[in-house]
TrEMBL record:
PANTHER family: METHYLATED-DNA--PROTEIN-CYSTEINE METHYLTRANSFERASE
UniProt binding sites for Zn(2+): 37, 41, 68, 71
Catalytic activity, EC: 2.1.1.63
Designated name of the protein: methylated-DNA--[protein]-cysteine S-methyltransferase
Species name: Cognatiyoonia koreensis
Record field: catalytic activity: a 6-O-methyl-2'-deoxyguanosine in DNA + L-cysteinyl-[protein] = S-methyl-L-cysteinyl-[protein] + a 2'-deoxyguanosine in DNA; a 4-O-methyl-thymidine in DNA + L-cysteinyl-[protein] = a thymidine in DNA + S-methyl-L-cysteinyl-[protein]
HTH araC/xylS-type domain ranges (all copies): 106-178
UniProt GO molecular function: DNA-binding transcription factor activity; methylated-DNA-[protein]-cysteine S-methyltransferase activity; sequence-specific DNA binding; zinc ion binding
Cofactor binding, note field: Binds 1 zinc ion per subunit.
Cofactors (names): Zn(2+)
Length: 346
């Protein structure tokens, strides 16, 4: 992190008092509006349960929040960076290129370094992220594919469908209003997640930027023989509340989970759920826990096949020597999850 954040209640008190000491050092994402702000923002203050705090603008953007138009949390004292931010705000759906940057009399290399230094991402990455969010939100709001395409700045319908399919593993037309499975965004302090539920169970919970997400979505549809749409059924709403509590240091409640795997794989996942928060296991220890001490490699494969992140805590499995091992959401997230649980451990 760029700045070691104090407890959330301290930050919320600072938000209520518009404490300028945290200006530029902490930001708040508001789940009800989907925007993030400076703590000094003049807008009406949100309820505590709707707030997520971040140590950087990049973290808030990664979690799926848009910058507030009142307090301008992306504003910069670097005139070159600010010039490009103003250009992006004026044309959020434009498909920006380095040629566009140069046309603004800005050196692309200078822009790349300035944005990396200020926000932890390049200008082109920020622009691409905002375009994809515009398109997804349009579809989630029951907009047509053509509306989503235009909002996302794609001149070609086929290009938009290809980009969407690359991200989700399926074309926009695959999403149906009457589908039994429904997908929704969940913003967390370590990035946006996609939750897929039916009326009774959560089927998938994965980080939006995970490369394996398209494969996981296809596998889920194949296993359930169903269709998918946009929405937030009861299990998804329960998951949103559970994750909010989890990152606030509270224990995870029991969410009804649909486990799609072999009997062996399900036994591994249940063993993962039984690992207490704040503790870890090695693959060999996990194999011993399920009564199959010689199945270490098979346990590792089952661990990697988990499609319900955090709630089935595969992040609690580490190497026998105590070092971190692979995690589909990224090792930095695994480290953050383990740190979160250690801090909350009584």
């Amino acid at each position: 992190m760029l700045f070691e954040l104090p407890p959330d209640q301290t930050l919320y008190d600072a938000l209520l008092s518009r404490d300028h000491h945290y200006d530029g050092r902490a930001f708040v994402g508001v789940s009800t509006t989907g925007v993030f702000c400076r703590l000094t923002c003049p807008a009406r203050k949100p309820k505590r349960e709707n707030c997520t705090f971040f140590d950087s603008q990049a973290a808030a953007l990664d979690a799926g929040f848009r910058p507030c138009k009142r307090c301008h949390p992306l504003s910069s004292t670097d005139p070159t960076v600010q010039k490009l931010l103003d250009a992006l705000n004026a044309r959020p759906a434009h498909r920006w290129t380095e040629a566009d940057i140069a046309a603004l009399d800005v050196d692309p290399s200078t822009a790349r370094k300035g944005f990396k230094r200020a926000f932890g991402m390049t200008f082109l990455e920020m622009a691409r992220q905002q375009r994809l969010a515009l398109g997804f939100n349009a579809l989630a709001d029951n907009g047509s594919v053509i509306d989503a395409q235009l909002l996302a700045g794609f001149e070609s319908g086929s290009a938009f469908r290809a980009s969407f399919a690359k991200r989700f593993g399926m074309a926009p037309a695959t999403f149906r209003k009457d589908a039994l499975l429904q997908a929704d965004f969940i913003n967390t302090p370590i990035g946006a997640m996609i939750a897929v539920s039916d009326r009774t169970h959560l089927h998938l919970l994965e980080f939006f930027d995970r490369k394996a997400l398209p494969t996981e979505m296809k596998r889920l549809l194949s296993m359930t023989k169903g269709t998918i749409g946009f929405g937030s059924p009861g299990p998804t709403e329960a998951t949103k509340a559970a994750l909010s509590d989890y990152f606030a240091g509270k224990a995870l409640p029991t969410i009804p989970l649909a486990l799609h795997g072999s009997a062996f794989t399900k036994s591994v996942w249940r063993a993962l759920i039984n690992i207490p928060a704040g503790e870890t296991r090695s693959y060999s220890q996990l194999a011993h826990d399920i009564g199959q001490p010689n199945a270490t490699r098979a346990v590792a494969r089952a661990n990697g096949a988990n499609q319900i992140a955090i709630l089935i805590p595969c992040h609690r499995v580490i190497c026998a020597d105590g070092s971190l091992t692979g995690y589909g959401g990224g090792l930095w997230r695994k480290q953050k999850l383990l740190e979160t649980e250690l801090k909350a451990k009584p």
